[in-house]
Each structure stands twice: as structure tokens, then as C-alpha cells.
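User: Design a sequence. Structure:
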């Protein structure tokens, strides 16, 4: 892992944390892997740094006084929808996971977090979509989703929506849990065209909706791999239809 991170020593990371000891510990850890680290004790100072320094990745606490990490994220995404990459770290989740990804966060780490897990996520986030979605999973998925839509569209209200990091999908039931690796084969079909979206992804949030009819479960999936037969077309679509959300929630 350390060797992999050293390949990206030109990366600049801004760490935003209101607890001085934790801020210093994270700064020292990232610096030990050859990364350039800037630090801010609150969101206001982070905004000042971002206005005068090029930054590749922001790693920020969520719950901070005066201005929260979510407010910082919204400020960043108003300026650019996908750079710098933004990761949240928190001990207590003040906002729902689906909301965080909808507003454009690229990842979430729960304290206390594993350093290797964090570094691996940071390494992957600066890869292109082609690079990131070409990595075949080492571990087997726990289950597979097979679903057919009667439209060739990556935005189907209430049922499916694709964005730059993953997708939201509505299901009747689930046999997996949060952070599980799942595989999917989604077919988008109409009388003129048929498109398959085949790959794997990690479950990042699950919302069960109360209903008097059939049960509904909304699931957010971060794409980790796409088959070559569909990868190019899906990447082109996300680039032609840029969105703030990393994984949409509606």
C-alpha cells in the first residue's frame, strides 16, 4: 500500500478537523506516505485555503462548529462538481449517508478508521473512470441484481439514476447489507435499442420506504467495475451529463 501511494506524491490533501490532536495525527500519517498535506481547524479556514491553493483531495470532519462539513462540501461543489475530491470522516453521522453522496461527497470514513482503507480510497479516487471501472474485483460478490427497464435511459424517475460514481436503484427486496459487494446486470430496452449495464459495486446506503403496497427499498451503489462491453458508453454518458451527486439518492 505504501508503495502505491508514493506513486502519487504530487497529490495535495487538505485535512479539515476541529480536534487539534486528531488533526495533527492525520496530517502526520498522510505526510508519512509522501503526500503534501495542508490543514485547517474549521470549514472557514478550509475555504480560505482552497481559494489560494490547488488541492486534489479534501478530507473533512462532518460535525464542526459554525460551518459543518456538509456546508463546506456544498460550497466546494458550487465551484466545481467533481474536483477536488471530498471525503467525510465522522464518529457520529449527523447526516444520512444518501444525503452526503447526493451532495457530491466521494466517500465516507467512520472514526476510528483504518489507515490502509483510507489510503486505498484516496488512491482510487484520483484514477479516471476508465481506470477505476476496469479493475476486476478480487472478492466474489454476495449476490446479483438482475433487472430490466422498458426505457433506454440512465435516469428513470423513482426507479434508477446514474451519476459519476454510482447509481440509485429501487428494489422490491434485498438479500445484502451495507458495504457488501454485489454484481448487477441491468437491461435498458425499447423497440429500437437494447443496452446492458453489467458490473459490480459496493452498497453505500439502504433506505427502506414504508408503503401500504409492495415493499420498496432504495439502494445506493458505488460502481467498482464495469464490463468492457458497456463501460465506454456509460462513461461517455456521465461525461455528457455531468452531475454534482457522486451517488444519487433519487
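Assistant: Done.
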Amino acid at each position: 500500500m505504501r508503495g502505491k501511494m508514493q506513486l502519487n506524491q504530487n497529490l495535495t490533501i487538505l485535512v479539515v478537523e476541529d480536534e487539534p490532536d486528531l488533526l495533527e495525527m492525520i496530517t502526520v500519517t498522510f505526510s508519512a506516505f509522501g503526500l503534501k498535506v495542508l490543514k485547517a481547524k474549521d470549514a472557514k479556514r478550509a475555504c480560505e485555503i482552497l481559494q489560494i491553493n490547488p488541492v486534489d483531495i479534501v478530507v473533512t470532519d462532518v460535525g464542526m462548529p459554525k460551518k459543518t462539513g456538509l456546508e463546506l462540501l456544498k460550497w466546494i461543489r458550487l465551484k466545481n462538481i467533481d474536483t477536488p475530491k471530498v471525503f467525510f470522516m465522522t464518529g457520529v453521522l449527523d447526516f444520512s449517508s444518501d444525503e452526503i453522496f447526493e451532495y457530491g461527497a466521494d466517500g465516507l470514513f467512520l472514526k476510528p478508521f483504518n489507515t490502509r482503507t483510507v489510503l486505498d480510497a484516496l488512491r482510487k479516487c484520483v484514477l479516471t473512470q476508465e481506470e477505476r471501472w476496469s479493475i476486476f474485483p478480487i472478492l466474489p460478490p454476495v449476490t446479483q441484481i438482475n433487472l430490466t427497464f422498458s426505457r433506454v435511459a440512465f435516469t428513470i424517475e423513482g426507479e434508477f439514476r446514474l451519476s459519476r460514481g454510482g447509481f440509485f436503484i429501487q428494489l422490491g427486496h434485498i438479500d445484502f447489507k451495507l458495504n457488501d459487494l454485489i454484481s448487477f446486470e441491468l437491461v435498458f430496452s425499447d423497440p429500437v435499442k437494447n443496452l446492458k449495464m453489467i458490473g459490480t459495486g459496493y452498497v453505500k446506503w439502504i433506505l427502506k420506504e414504508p408503503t401500504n403496497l409492495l415493499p420498496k427499498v432504495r439502494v445506493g451503489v458505488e460502481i467498482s467495475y464495469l464490463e468492457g462491453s458497456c463501460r465506454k458508453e456509460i462513461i461517455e454518458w456521465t461525461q455528457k451529463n455531468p452531475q454534482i451527486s457522486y451517488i444519487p439518492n433519487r
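Confidence is low (pLDDT under 50) at residues 1-7. The first strand starts at residue 12 and ends at 16.
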